[in-house]
Design a protein that fits this description.
globular
C-alpha cells in the first residue's frame, strides 16, 4: 500500500465527510488536536520507558509505540486530505527538503528553510 492508497482507505474512518474544509471547522480542528494528542501519547510512552525502565524498550513497548505512530499517521493523512493534497506529495516534499539539507550540510541548525 502506498501513501495515497493509505490516505484513501483511511478516509472511511473519518466521522466528518465534507468536500471542503476551513481551518475553523470543528472537523479540521479536531484532527489538528488529535494529531497533537497522539504525538503526545507517543512521547509519553518514551518518557515512561526512560523513567521506569532505564531506557530499555521491550517488545510490548515497541508494539504500543507503533500503535500510537499509526494514529499519528492517520491524522496526518486526514489533515492532508482536508488541505486538498495527497499524502504521497507530503512524503515526496519531505524527502526533497531533507535531501536538500543533507546536500547543503544543514541537517543541524534551526529554521524551516535552511
Amino acid at each position: 500500500m502506498n501513501f495515497n492508497q493509505y490516505q484513501e482507505y483511511a478516509e472511511q474512518f473519518d466521522l466528518f465527510a465534507q468536500e471542503k474544509y476551513k481551518a475553523s471547522d470543528p472537523a479540521f480542528m479536531a484532527k489538528v488536536l488529535g494529531l497533537v494528542g497522539e504525538a503526545g501519547e507517543t512521547a509519553e510512552k518514551f518518557k515512561k520507558i526512560l523513567r521506569d525502565k532505564a531506557g530499555e524498550i521491550s517488545e510490548e513497548d515497541k508494539l504500543e509505540i507503533l500503535k500510537e505512530l499509526g494514529d499519528v499517521l492517520w491524522y496526518i493523512a486526514t489533515i492532508t486530505r482536508y488541505l486538498g493534497a495527497d499524502f504521497q506529495t507530503v512524503a515526496d516534499m519531505n524527502i526533497k527538503k531533507l535531501s536538500k539539507r543533507l546536500e547543503d550540510n544543514k541537517l543541524h541548525g534551526s529554521g524551516d528553510n535552511r
